[in-house]
Amino acid sequence: YGRASNGTWQGGMIGQLVREEIDLAFGGIWLQADAYKFVNLSIPWYHVSINFLVPRPKPITNIWALMRPLNPYVWLTIIFIFFLQSLNIWLKALINPSVPSSN
Predict the structure, then answer these.
(1) Are 34 and 15 in contact (CB under 8 A)?
(2) DSSP code of 8?
(3) Separation between Cα atoms, residue 38 and residue 95, nearest integer Å
(4) How far is CA 52 from CA 11, 34, 35, 49, 55, in A?
(5) Domain range summary for the chain, segments of one domain joined by +
(6) DSSP-based three-state secondary structure for 41
(7) Count of beta carbons in the 10 Å neighbourhood of residue 97
(8) For an engineered disulfide with 1, which of 12, 38, 41, 82 has Cβ 3.0 to 4.6 Å away?
(9) What is the pLDDT of residues 22-79, one digit of tens each?
């Protein structure tokens, strides 16, 4: 069910994936050459008409994409703890006489 028309997919589960109404689809989706332009179809390892569909991933062009998974406050906390731990190690090395100095 559904078809390619004017560079987009009309109808069916593939259409819902393209319009981002659903995240993935299971079912008896008939393999059509046009469908491969819009979604990644799983490779059939046994000849049945059931496929696992996910929308094609959009390319990430933002240089800060690796920062997205965590909240900015979490990143600030991580940086603060990093500097606090660095200060802790430096003070322990300063106090401990067995640590060689750079002089």
Answers:
(1) no
(2) E
(3) 64
(4) 17, 16, 13, 10, 10
(5) 3-55, 65-95
(6) strand
(7) 7
(8) 12
(9) 888 777 666 677 776 777 777 655 555 667 777 887 776 777 777 788 889 999 999 9
